[in-house]
Specification:
By secondary structure, the chain is mainly α. Helix content is 54%, strand content 0%. The protein has nine helices and no strands.
Length: 170
């Protein structure tokens, strides 16, 4: 195996079989989501029970238990968004190229896995630093109109990718 690559020729040959490849991806993603949720819940500065995470995510404890089961694999995107919101973290979904995906999968969430919840002061300090540090133009995601906020429990939420592209271009 070439230095630095997390896969071998034999492994790639096995992945050439679409059925094996699809099952491998599903297994890896199910396991990663389960381990990530548990690692975030047990993170030292949180140390939440499944019940506490469920309370924050608006889910009963058995749902959290299933989400932490690598064999479950039936979590909806909405449920993952709600769990991420309970941790005050964003959810990131991507469809990368194989080489990138395989590299990402080598980072298995465990007890050392750590993510910081949203912290406006930390992010403001970074924004101030990027504005004064000559890092270039700072793009931001505009919020939806107040009319749209009425449909989202009175909260303004970020616009679509098209609006992001327009904001970044200006």
């Amino acid at each position: 195996m070439p230095y630095g690559l997390p896969w071998s020729e034999n492994f790639v040959r096995q992945l050439a079989d679409k059925e094996v490849r699809d099952e491998f991806v599903a297994d890896q993603i199910r396991s990663r989501i389960a381990l990530m949720i548990r690692a975030l819940r047990e993170q030292e500065d949180r140390d939440w029970s499944q019940t506490e995470l469920g309370r924050r995510a608006g889910k009963p404890q058995p749902v959290i238990s299933r989400l932490e089961d690598p064999d479950y694999g039936k979590a909806s995107l909405q449920t993952l968004l709600e769990v991420a919101a309970a941790f005050e973290l964003p959810l990131y979904v991507d469809i990368p190229e194989w080489e990138d995906w395989l590299r990402l999968m080598t980072n298995v969430p465990d007890r050392s896995f750590h993510r910081r919840s949203f912290d406006a002061e930390r992010m403001l300090a970074q924004a101030r630093g990027s504005q004064t540090g000559g890092a270039g133009k700072v793009a931001y995601l505009p919020l939806r109109s107040e009319e749209d906020a009425d449909e989202n429990n009175g909260k303004q939420i970020p616009q679509s990718d098209e609006s992001w592209a327009e904001a970044a271009a200006n």
